[in-house]
Amino acid sequence: MTDLSQFIAGLPKAELHLHIEGSLEPELMFELAQRNNVAIPYASVEEVRAAYDFSNLQDFLDIYYAGADVLRTRADFHDLAMAYFARAAADGVVHAEIMFDPQTHTDRGIPFAEVIEGLLSAMAAAEAEYGLTSQLILSFLRHLSEEAAFATLAMAEPWLDRITAVGLDSSEVGHPPAKFARVFAAAREKGLKITAHAGEEGPPAYVHEALDLLGVDRIDHGNRALEDEALVSRLAAEEMTLTVCPLSNLKLCVVNDLADHPLDRMLARGLKATVNSDDPAYFGGYVADNYRAVAQARGLSRADLVTLARNSFTGSFLPAEAVARHVERLEAYAAG
Length: 336
Ligand SMILES: Nc1ncnc2[nH]cnc12
Ligand SMILES: [Zn+2]
Known about the structure:
Blueprint: H1 3-10, E1 13-19, H2 26-36, H3 45-51, H4 57-67, H5 74-90, E2 93-100, H6 102-106, H7 112-130, E3 133-141, H8 146-155, E4 165-169, H9 181-189, E5 193-198, H10 204-214, E6 218-221, H11 229-237, E7 241-244, H12 246-251, H13 263-268, E8 272-275, H14 280-283, H15 287-298, H16 302-314, H17 320-334
Parallel strand pairs: 1-2, 2-3, 3-4, 4-5, 5-6, 6-7, 7-8
Bound molecules: adenine and zinc ion (ZN).
Zinc ion binds at residues 17, 19, 169, 197, 220, 278.
Organism: Novosphingobium guangzhouense
Family: Belongs to the metallo-dependent hydrolases superfamily. Adenosine and AMP deaminases family. Adenine deaminase type 2 subfamily.
Site (Important for catalytic activity): 221
């Protein structure tokens, strides 16, 4: 390992943009297919990996939703999340805010309780085993209706004390934040934090809507905000955290080359950017790989990497005392 690679692995960091279903590695997909007697359209792990060649978000989503079909029981969700936490801990992640897509499962007849109880038991186990804390973000699928999102929020009612935030993901273009303004207002009323994917493929107007109509506490991706100068100034002034995902951006053709990735321009414009893995099993790397790839492609300094890690704590949904504790440890690490 190079010095920089080692520095990145040891850098204490939070991961704020991770779809737990997107951490399903092909090996586990095969294991769960066998365990649950589910047919999958691949003959080998190599064949699965070869299928992960996407030209846009929808290409990926079609394969990602199909892959999730092997997840059937509480034990499956537990094993899925534990595999992620082990990788994250090895990457220096000390806190993770993980998204899950209940509708991907409840629409297949998997009870909400099976999904969330499996995830919650893994979260407790990860804290015991690795000292890694985590929080849950319930994400609504934006290609489905407002009514379906309301039904999902209602299903979550018995677990609301164990859910930190709601999010908005899936096919962005054609499904603007405005479609879900009332659901997010209801979620906020229930004390939940708010995040939403915006400006990944969708226009800057969707980022404006996420701010104005959803009242987001942070923005997932936000790349296309850079096309709107006034919006950039507003995001900077509001110290809005952006959960940026470099390898995802490359695999989904949001950028053509990592050498063109806007991460350092975001920092230079005063934006609170963070680095995250999104769907690491599909995009070729976990969070430290994302730091490494973008650091190399854009020539980031150690100071930039520390800023990104600091932003991951200040942009988290942790209470202020916990943020201060994490930042203090980070500064001590940075000082060597
Ligand atoms: N990058 C992404 N954008 C939108 N929806 C997603 N679901 C999982 N990953 C996603
Ligand atoms: Zn995402």
